[in-house]
Amino acid sequence: MCGIIGFIDRTKSRMDGSSIKVALSLMNERGSGDGAGYAAYGIYPEYADCYALHVFFDNLTEPKKKVDELLHQWGEIVHQEEIPTTPQPGIKKVHIPWRYFFKPSENLMEGRVASENDVVMHIVMEVNATVKGATIFSSGKNMGVFKASGWPEDVANFYRIEDYKGYIWLAHNRYPTNSPGWWGGAHPFNLLNWSVVHNGEITSYGTNQRYVEEYGYKCTALTDTEVVAYLFDLLGRQHELSHEMVVKALAPPFWDDIDRMPAKEAELNKVIRLTYGSALMNGPFAIVVGTENGIVGFTDRIKLRPLVVGENGSKLYISSEEAAIRTLDPEVKNIYTPRAGEPIIGRFIE
Amino acid sequence: MKTVGIDAKGMHYTPLNQKIRAAVADGAEEIILDNVLGQRFIGDGLRGNVRIIINGVPGGDLGMFMSGPTCIIHGNAEHAPGNTMDSGMLVIHGSAGDAVAHSMRGGKVFVKNNIGYRGGIHMKQYEVDARPILVIGGTAHSFLGEYMAGGLVLVLGIGKEKAMTDRGIGSGIHGGEIVIRGEVDDYLLGVGAKKFEFTEADLERIAPIIKSFCEQFGYDPAEFLDTNYTRIGPASSRPFASKYVWE
Fold this sequence. Notes:
A: 350 residues; alpha+beta; 7-stranded antiparallel β-sheet; 5-stranded antiparallel β-sheet; 11 helices; 18 strands; B: 247 residues; Pectate Lyase C-like; 11-stranded mixed β-sheet
């Protein structure tokens, strides 16, 4: 059991994190104090063209030296600092949260990798798999993840979440059931501009993990949700599938439902199931994904976890509970429960 | 009538439920809760004939183990209202989340609009006069009456072309009945569920329930008494015997 929230303002009007904290705390029953986290998009406009790398360092000597060296091999550190925090009685600061604003250099990339995103993905996988005492937990542009072991309000106060203003917010209250509670295991899980909050278990994790590892992803977070971020990056960025198609691949219709579809639709669904069989996720889940174009919410195919949707003008809300949405926006309209596997998509209005 | 008002704004469910219990112990016949938002477990294990008016959206497991009281909810409800409820009534003037009337063993849950997945899951019945009843004005998502062992689930499909369009109705049902207004496509039936003829005697049986539902929400019962229904029940008394028994 976990509590999740996704929010987007489709006009990119930004909101600070104070109400997200209150809404997530309303679902404290869904957590156990072993992890909470937030992702916010639009928070670093002054460094919008840099990758914002958020890192947990065990100390600022050896692990940081290694990360600095790796970054210098691939580009320029435009700015770096410790992420501002305020001590909280409920949080033991076991890691030092650090942020780099990093720009890959074209000269250094030339002939080695195809794109800036590939460089950053390589750096994240390399650090997380090989540098002891360092974990890159956020690597997108103009966005950032803030997470730790603790209750939602403590984690929010620790990172001073009300100081950030974003047009997308994700929030997660963790109740770990089959993996350890540690800072890197708190949600959201992120790679590049993909961030994932998840309530449930991915029982197909082994299959999904082997699948993404064939493409160079390395699962190091000791819990299942990490693989969802990599599946979205693989299918959404590398294979350029639309968000709707990614959801169709991860939570596809059942074969007998496909049999009842009109011929053309059935053919498309068959092809996706056959091509992405190893990406299909089993087990109970309700998920919201933050992307560079908006947010995507969906559940498992037999709806074993709750998900509620609400709208108000340019704002779209997705959460485990209606009360959390009403806390964010007492005037919310059109509250409903989506169908199992149905993608709920909020995109920016151009 | 002794009425007690409680402003629940920003209140955690523990003090809220303590106040409700104290009011009942003090002889309150009606309790009005204002500004309810997400507080879980309201009225849980509560006994007596008190009437609780809930203004707002109560949290999960509303009326769990409740025995006797009536809760009128002016708003939607979250997951599992009526969970293992014993007797009494929940009247929800809105929609409700997943697992409505979960394991309910007596009393009534009336929902004006729609419910989520697995409504009536594990509903059961011990005695003829203690039959749990779930009535849904609108429609329900998949796995309605999943693993149902007793009681009645009634779907009226008000404002819908078809009362049910989601699959898995009565999946694993081995007791009780699901009555749905209008026709139900065969492929919507879950494993172990079967359609039965809906007779005049059946209509007579459920007519008082329809009237009671209509009375709560101000509907004219006439149109629900002059229409056809589909009755769904277990395919046999022990549909899964071969799965769990080796003889």
